Structures are given as structure tokens and as C-alpha cells.
Amino acid sequence: MSDEHHETFEGADAGASLTFPMQCSALRKNGHVVIKGRPCKIVDMSTSKTGKHGHAKVHLVALDIFNGKKLEDVSPSTHNMDVPNVKRTEYQLINVEDGFLSLLLDDGSTKDDVKLPEGDLGKEILEKFEDGKDIYVTITAAMGEEHCLQYKEGNA
């Protein structure tokens, strides 16, 4: 019976690890925060005192880490806000097929579920790869999404 109970907790905990709570007053510029359900990087923040019995409020300006859209939020400094767990991993690019990157994992298998970025970044990666250059892409993962946000050329 106790084993079954333990498994239930593990299952419940797995989904909760996408974000963690942090008091608003502890957030910092260039840190991360969740605004309107999106993982964001804080680009500006200010604290304002309100009336005689009011609480200080924190005004956050942040950019979505995946699409660059500007989002803003105002919250009492004593409240908790969600902070996304952001992970960056570098992979060697071994192929581009049907708009997806084929990436080499440490164990020799491949990861084929990350889209080629749109716009200039995607064009640059594709051109350099087709020219035979060794390309290493950095995949940023947060809140169940993964995107290629940068790359570098390797030493061939």
C-alpha cells in the first residue's frame, strides 16, 4: 500500500517541476518569470509604494524567451510569482529534414523534435550546414517547449 502511495506523489511532482514560486520582491532584472503563462526574461522592473495602508507593487516588463514579445505585469511585492525552470543544452546538428533539426545526443541516438528556427536564424543555420560546416545548436527548454535560439560553428 505504501509503495502505491509513493508512486502517486512522484507522478504529481513531475508536472510541477516546470516552474517554481518566488516572492515578487526577490525577482531581479535579467532573471526569469512567468507572465500570462509564458516563460519570460525580465528586462525592467520598478517598485512603487502605494497609499498609507497599501502594499508596495512591483511592475515587471519582460520579453517572452521564445518569441520576443513584450509582456508586463504588476503584482504586490509580497506575492509569489512562478519562475520557469530554463535549461540550455548544446547539440551537434547532423541533419535538417522537413523543417526539423536532427541533433546528435551523447549516447549516439538522435533528437528529431526541434523545429528549424524561422527567419534569419534558421536560414543561417541551413546555409552553413549545407556548406558542410560543423554546426552546434543551443536548445533552450522551458515549460514544455524547446526552441533553437542560437548556434555556433564547430572546429572542423
UniProtKB/TrEMBL annotation:
Post-translational modifications reported in the UniProt record: eIF-5A seems to be the only eukaryotic protein to have a hypusine residue which is a post-translational modification of a lysine by the addition of a butylamino group.
Residue span, Translation initiation factor 5A C-terminal domain: 85-152
GO biological process: positive regulation of translational elongation; positive regulation of translational termination; translational frameshifting
Localisation per UniProt entry: Cytoplasm
Cellular component annotations (GO), alphabetically ordered: cytoplasm
Molecular-function GO terms, alphabetical: ribosome binding; RNA binding; translation elongation factor activity
UniProt-listed InterPro entries: IF5A-like, IF5A-like_N, IF5A_C, NA-bd_OB-fold, Rib_uL2_dom2, Trans_elong_IF5A_hypusine_site, Translation_prot_SH3-like_sf
Key words, A-Z: Cytoplasm, Elongation factor, Hypusine, Protein biosynthesis, RNA-binding
Task performed by this protein: Translation factor that promotes translation elongation and termination, particularly upon ribosome stalling at specific amino acid sequence contexts. Binds between the exit (E) and peptidyl (P) site of the ribosome and promotes rescue of stalled ribosome: specifically required for efficient translation of polyproline-containing peptides as well as other motifs that stall the ribosome. Acts as ribosome quality control (RQC) cofactor by joining the RQC complex to facilitate peptidyl transfer during CAT tailing step.
Family: Belongs to the eIF-5A family.
UniProt protein name: Eukaryotic translation initiation factor 5A
Organism field: Syncephalastrum racemosum (Filamentous fungus)
